[in-house]
Queue: 2 jobs
Job 1
Amino acid sequence: MISLTNIHKSFGQQEVLKGIDLTVEQGDVVAILGPSGSGKTTLLRCVNFLERADEGKVQISGLTVDCKHARKHDIVQLRRKTAMVFQHYNLFKHKTVLDNVTEGLIIAQKMSKADARERALRVLEQVGLSAKINEYPSMLSGGQQQRVGIARALALNPEVILFDEPTSALDPELVGEVLSVIRSIAQEGITMIVVTHEMGFAREVANRVVFMDGGSVVEEGTPEEVFVRPKQERTRQFLSRYSSDWSYVI
Amino acid sequence: MGKSFDLSLVLDFVPELLRYLHITLIVLSGSIVLGLVGGVLLAVPRLYRIPVLSQLATLYISFMRGTPILIKLFLVYYGLPELLKPLGVDLSRTDPLVFVIVTYALSDAASFAEIFRGAVRSVDKGQTEAAYAAGLTTFQSFRRIVVPQALIVAFPNMANTLIGSLKDTSLAFSIGVMDMVGRGQTLISATSHALEVYISLSVVYYVIVLVLEKGFAVAERRLQRHERKKEVRGPAVRAERLKRIAG
Amino acid sequence: MSIDFNFIYTSFFQILKALPLTLVITIVPLIAGFGVGLVTALIRIYKVPWVYRIADFYVSFFRGTPMLMHLFLIYYGIPLIIDKLAARYGWAFQSSSIPILVFVLFAFSLTAGAYMSEIIRSGILAVDTGQMEAAHAVGMSTSQALRRIILPQAVGAVLPNLCSMFVGFLHGSTLAFTVSQMDILGKADVVASVSLKFLEAFIAAALIYWGLTVIAERITALLERRVAVYSKGGVS
């Protein structure tokens, strides 16, 4: 169970997050949507303290960290309960695909090399990249690199996987393969928070949708509620811009 | 110079000079090793913006890179004994070799610090973020993710610094070190064949530099094996390219 | 520790008097070196038969040996050649009448030429191949294209390196001290020997060089900002 309470964040004079509350139950797939500048990516990065909120609390299954007075030790503990998939993949360029996945397991989770390797092979098979385990990231396509990123996150067995616009940097024809991987792990019941522009995907895979604008949560609910019967005018405006791009289904 | 030029003397001088090659190499390796350590110590405060230390480091680096090596040699030669006098350390009978290694180490440290700083900053921040997201601590992320990638960027520059340092060691004789150049000076006094001596010296340095450059080129290629294989830049491709540029 | 700070101050101005000579020893080789470097770069790129091998060796040798060696090789070698030629052709000319400064400038010009050659060569090679094709397409001959399109961009390649070249040769000018030139270091040595305050004199000299280096860095930074407008696209 993840809960964010009263998250405030400013960059200089600009207040980007204006007191956000969010609760995520186990097994939820939460899609966070909104225009650029709405603060959705910042919010996501506050969960694992890649951005440090000015005020508020982050709680992940029992561990609560106060953002204002967070200690290094607590932050590391919190990060070990989460995993992240980045917009630009951020695979470790100097390590092979296999080593990318085992790195966190061996170093952060102190797993033995053999166990780490076993788990890595399993998740890499899950994302369909068993053939590439000894390749370097520079030799893979964007879609393949992102799938490795997903495998890396999966292997860590976190309480929640955070997705920061996972398909935004991909060529259109590669988006599909990544979305189908994300869909399959969602179906396994893994808790996920996904910041995305892919409306059709959000509608199909998420069980909760959160719409943010200007640093606050404007509306939230099931995909049905938000997409079909939006209550707020801003939500309606935002959705109308995307109404033609809804189906990116494979 | 009364005696006539004799090219065969060059061949005679080279082995004689090589007998002192080890001194040059001791100076070089001592200064490089200490310089690497110093370079890291200087780079860290600036990279992590530690107050006071980072300003001092910046000042130190600016001074080291702003003064000629000969001046630095003299400063250390005359200054170090003065500096250590109040501590009761008497350097009046120290081998000038020590002063030379100290000078070059201090100087190389500044060069390496600049190289390290640039290299670390060139590593994409996303790499560090991914490491943090996977649960690595600051230190683990730095050591396992940033440093290996930074080293690859830094390597060519470090190689150049090393070769530059080798050439700089030719000045050590000015404070009395008996290295190859020092031996050359005594040979000149003995035989008055200065030109031949300097030709021999030049040949020795040239060969060492060529060997080092080859070695570094090989090492660099090995380090970059994780890069995408670029278009083959063989001689045929290069010739084609030159034709197109030069018309 | 006994450092006479007052003496550092007074000797500073005494030593500064040698600045003009230091600047001459720095700048003249840079200018001559640019010319030499440009010619050798072109020879190497166009692979002028036989000559390019000499050019390649020249660049490789002068970049692969200490600058001190260059100075001594020229200082001892040229007089020998001149005297031999004078004896052969009956010139009323002796190498000893040539001021040492000439040898210094000549040696350093050769050094500068080798480094410049490499910079210019890689600068020209980095020029987009399309530039020459475009020049031809507009109707220019090769030499016109070279002069008006390629070479200006080659000069642009040197500019970022200008600071490090200037500083490099400023520092290199101290080698002239070994052949008894009265540059900043030479003057400092004299001041030191007279007063026996070696440390103070050399500290003053160090400060002068440091100051000159910082000034050079600032000026080139200013120049680069001016030129940056044109090289936004990334020439080299």
Job 2
Amino acid sequence: MTTSGLGKALDDPPAAPAAVVAPADVAPVPDTGAPSDDFERLRELLLGGERRELAAARARITELERTQQDLPRRLPGAAVEALRSGKENARVADALSEPVAQALGSAVQKNRESIVDALFPIIGPMIRKAIAEALRGLVANLNGAIESSFTLRGLQWRLEAWRGGVPYAQVVLKHRLAYGIDHVFLIERGSGLVLRHASAPGQPPLDADAIAGMLTALGDFVDDSVGDDSGGSLDAAQVGEDLVWVEHGPRANLACFMHGVPPVELRALLEQRLEEIHAQVLAMPADTPLRAIGDNALVQDLLDPQNLLRDAGDAAAPIAARTTSRAPIVVIALLALALVGWFAVDRWRWNTRIETLRAQLVAQPGFVLGRIEAKPWRSLVVHGLLDPDAPPLAPLLDAADLGKVVPKLDATGYVSTDDAVIARRATRLLAPPPTVTLAVHERVLALGGQAPAQWIDNAAQHAAWIAGVARVESTLVAEVDGVVAARAELHRVLATLDGIVVPFVQDGEPGADAGRITDAVATTLKRATALAVVAKQHLAITVFGSNDNSGGSEANARVRAVRAQWLALALAARGFDGARTSDEAGPGAPNMRAAYVRAVVEVAP
Amino acid sequence: MATHKVCMLGDFGVGKTSLVARYVRSTFSDKYLTTVGVKVDSKEVVLADGGALKLVLWDIAGRSALDAPSANYLRGASALLLVADGTREGSLTSALKLLMQSRSSLPDAFAVLAVNKLDLVARWEVAPATLAELRRSLPVFETSALSGAGVEQAFAEIAARLHA
């Protein structure tokens, strides 16, 4: 209201100079004493307050203008100061976000090259880092997911990695990257109806019409939603491990459903196939419906998944078509067979030896086999009952030939009634002399031969008490005095020496039978010497030489000495060296060229 | 075997998907799931004369007027099954509007009208006289996806006409 009133007052002629507009008009007017003084007073009365406010506002505007003019110089510093301030930071950032975004967008539109040049050093490393992280994650996921799986396919891949000497993850990637064609659709472009559908062998049946329809609808949706005037359309789609490639033609589309990672050559091949199919369409009569193209044999051949795989190149062939060498498998199989064979033979050898040992132990008198605790080629313990008088088992166990295994015997004592053990027990207890025979048959102890009367009496008393003996049968004969018998035998033996001479041809040259006769003499002397010991007598053996009547006495004495010396040496060579020699003609010396022995029995000292 | 594309057209919630489910799989669910875009099914039909053909059913998302994406879905269709909800008279108007719009791209397509939800006939807003009037222009079937009433007949009519 005040402003309106002021405006109305200023519209009057006295106020025409518009004091509000011109600052000079605001300055006090000199007092001239004229009517203008009244006017000024009136103005002061009416407009004094407003004029003062106007003057203050003008001064403020002047200050603001000065500040505005100084703003470009102060703005960077003020902005930095504001951003450093924790309280003002958020406000400044919020205030700047919108203009900065707009400025960036404007800069991208107006000066794209500069923006690209500025961002290039940053974007490159960022992309590389992102790719590296993605690949690392992929490999880690594959390893983690499949290493923990024990599926047959996982085991096959592990075997393949082991055979090839490559990391398991690499094999997994290779198989994942291998591809195969599952289904091929030739679809009428407009209606989405199936013109031809072919599936790879082993694929489960599917509703080809519905799939072709949905694929067409999806293509229409993509085309309508994000397609542009350049004719962009749905060329590929991927769901999980399944991939769909769509080739578009003027009359029909070709859709190929695959798994794995197909090569780019396949894409070009699909395009080529679709062109060939359209050529077939053009060759059809004008009134033939498009749907008849599916019955064309050439088209069917062109759309066969196996043919597509084959033509896409062997390098990109799926894993199913790849042939692998069977040699490693054969080698592994042979090694496994050899290992099993060796194991079987080794076990057979051990079992054979154990069974042989078992049979021997069972047949062993005085031992009852309990069980054999055996670990092949590692340990063997024989458990059973053993009679102390049984034959020792150690030789049997040592002869088992069990390699490095030392058999152990875990035996408990018992008394055996086996005849052989009874005989050993009787021998140990009776200690029969060599002239006594001892035998056990069906627990009957038979004693025979000669023995001193005292031993016979002792045996008669104790034999029946020997463990296991049921009855004793004795044919023992008390033997005569041994010394007397030996002396008689000694004299009989020595008597055989009488008349035995070793013939000589000439001087010290022995006759033809000298050697044989000397052998007999030596044997007889040894026998006599042994008997003399038993007979407690001493033998004096003298070797004499003899001669015929020819020659002189001295010559004969020398010849006799030579011949006696020869015989003594010959006897020594045959093991009897207790004879002395004499050059005298002995008692009853024969009248011939010979040497002979005479023995004299003396009472032993 | 000849294959024909049949498009289901109608306002949302009139029961197009339920009619297809009843016809193709003999199932019904009272749980409403709106169709996004289109859902395609197929069914082989054996006709009374022993002939056979396959119907590829495009269940297009419900709408009261044809837009560009829906018009694209109609390409190559041999027949239209217009579906209206008897309890909503407006859906009948939408179905007829859709029929008029589709004629520009499908002038020769055979059209059948299915007025659905016969099981709720007590709540129908569509007057019998209206249906009688419509029957002079196109085959009209009163259907129920819930009970299956009239469903086979509607599709059989389409199959017979396409086979002829």
